[in-house]
Write the structure tokens for this entry.
Amino acid sequence: MTDTGFEKTPARDRRRFPGISSRAYEHPADRSALVALRKLSGFDTVFKALSGLLPERSLRLLFLSDSVRVGETQFPHLYGMLRDACFILDLEKVPQMYVQQDPRPNAMCIGLDEPIIVVTTGLVKLLDEEEMRAVVGHEVGHALSGHAVYRTVLLFLTSLALKVSWIPLGNVAISAIVTALREWFRKSELSADRAGLLAGQDVNASMRGLMKIAGGDNLHEMNVDAFLAQAEEYESSGDLRDSVLKILNVLPRTHPLTAVRAAELRKWSLSRDFQRIMDGHYPRRDEDKDTSVTDSFRQSASHYADSVRASRDPLMKLVGDLAGGAGDLGGKLRDRFTGGSGSGGGPSAPADGGDKGSNGPG
């Protein structure tokens, strides 16, 4: 049964964000990937068709009959976290939440008409209270952003792609949409991580939770700073071949790489944008109708341009060189792949990150 009231306030003193719009925490890459997804040829047709065909009632009945519904008498500590997160992010209707038997740590927010949050027993056992609070806030962020619909479509299409893999043209068409959906899905996780931080308001707990998801429950054997250093090394080391391999490694995934997620969230937690939200200055939902689509495009484009300029990844550096009209691009391309210094027709910039052992700042 869903709730619409909030008789209880959060377990400890946390700032609440009345009327907060999802625009406050959505990652620019999330918005731009969703725009690109909606422009994909055939997506609107498939989406409208699936919206009427997806067995949402069957999905709800499945969780109702084969999982444990969170409430005042079942997993009450999770129910308290759920209500707290909805109170803090001002989500009026508390979604139904289920615990599903699965040793793999995972959580999801799905549903077409109303979102359903599902967490696995593996995740509940893995995380402590504050870490779990960030995860619950993460899923509530998905619900507030309206992500559940597209995530449900992705789950269905992924299953369908396997069933029609023997149909050459059909599989190609579905695979194109699945690939675009996965790209958006990964970016939406960055937005929801931010929502989880706003709900839990404990950046160390958010970092620990991501680290545990990557490495298990041996917290005494792990270190958050060292974990973040892995992300720094991943982003900055290697040559152009490694950049291509990174892309290939990420393509089949629905979630971003965990260390990279942690680094992205830490960076946002130190930003002026985060501090402004904590100070009570954030976009409101009642202003969403007046939001300029052009401004959203401009913000996303600015974010990508800044990312390319700041990135130490060799491929992103090459993209920056191309955009900047740098000379001797053939030599640069060769050098980035081979790690050589090059002797082309013009002065060649150092191959950033070419030293595979480097993990220092650029």
Observations:
- Residues 207 and 262 are 6 Å apart (CA to CA).
- The chain has a mean pLDDT of 77.
